[in-house]
Every structure is written in C-alpha cells, then in structure tokens.
Specification:
164 residues, mainly alpha, Four Helix Bundle (Hemerythrin (Met), subunit A)
Length: 164
Amino acid sequence: MNVKAQEGQPLWDRLVLQAARLIYWSWLILMGLDGGRYNWSNLPDWLIWVGRAAFLAGIWGTWRVFRENSFTAPIVRIQSERGHRVISTGPYAIVRHPMYASSLFLLTGWALALNSAWGVLGAIVIELLIALRIGGEEKVLREGLPGYVEYTRKVRYRLIPYVW
C-alpha cells in the first residue's frame, strides 16, 4: 500500500492507488472499531469460521499468482525492460486477473474473521474499486502487451469464471 509513483504509470492508476490507500486504512480502522472495540456487529461463529477459511484461501491464491507470474506488480505498466510477456498458465488459465480474484476472498474473509459486518461493506467498496481498475488495466495490456488480445479470447473471464 506504500507504492511510489513510477515512470510509465498512467495518471488514472496513481489516482486509483491513492483512493485505495485512503479507503484501505479507513477500512482497517472501521473493522477494529466494529469487531474489536465496540462490537457493532455480532456475526455467528460459523460465519467467522467461513471468513477465516476465505481469508486463508485468498492468501493461498495470492501466493499462487506470485509463484506463477514474475511480472506481478502493484502498478499498471508494461515492463518491457524485463521482457514482459503474457502469462496464461496456473491461475491465469482460469481468469485474467487471479490476484484480484483472490482479493475477493481475502478482503471479505478478513472482515468476517474479525466479526465485522461493516467491514464486509467496506470490502465491497474496495472490490468495486478493483473492478474499476481492471478496466483501465485491461486497456493498457491490450494496447501494449503483445499477445494479450489473443489471451483474452482464450481466457474470457476477468475476475469470476462464468460471470465477468
């Protein structure tokens, strides 16, 4: 979350990351107040356990992405100096943005695990911001990464199989 602006990074991506930073830290504080200090939410134990499992699934999915793709970066840009190429194996054979897909589990699971229904609403806001970012990221990849358009024909879904 402490990513510095880099050369070649689009302005819209810098703005999205700044908004994400603000929302993320506010979300963490909200969950601490809700699930820890004031107990505004009182989720059933089984849902807290589902959240813990989802959180772990999100961590595992993120690990798989980093293991599969050495070009994974927190900013949107083509890494031509490193020979950036399309990765279509592992989780990238299922959805085009598997790290973002993993974040759906991680963020929602985190909020549930901390007994915070308000945190779940915050996770949804963050996930909507991620969906907006995917649109811009797709444009950059289509225009600048050789083979990406063909990849989008093979792997049709961006985030959720059979949905989007």
